[in-house]
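Incident log, structure service

09:12 report received: a user says their structure output differs between two submissions of the same chain.
09:20 pulled the input from the user's history:
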Amino acid sequence: MTEQSSTTRNSRLRKIVSPVVNSIAESIHNKFPNLTPNQVTITGLLGVITGSIISIEHHLAGAGIALIFTLTDAFDGALARIMQTDPKIGQLVDAGSD
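09:34 re-ran on a clean worker, output below:
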């Protein structure tokens, strides 16, 4: 697969997924207006770590928990755009958790 076709595929996927992620992030912001994108990132990271630890003894449950919290990674950036927060710190925290 060429780099260009991969980029095109990612662009198409982003057009489909972005409105859904943005809508969910908007709902999260409306229900929890004081929740910051960095809090979402840290919560997701802690959830993935917890799921990984649980998976040592309970494979399926731990993997499920880690998967659910991995999905939170999509919402921190959308929430940051909604809240118009400073992207420098958020990008650093997000990159560190990835």
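09:41 both user submissions now match this output. Likely a transient worker issue. Closing.
09:42 reviewer note: Residues 3-31 form the longest helix (29 residues). The two ends are 25 Å apart (CA to CA).
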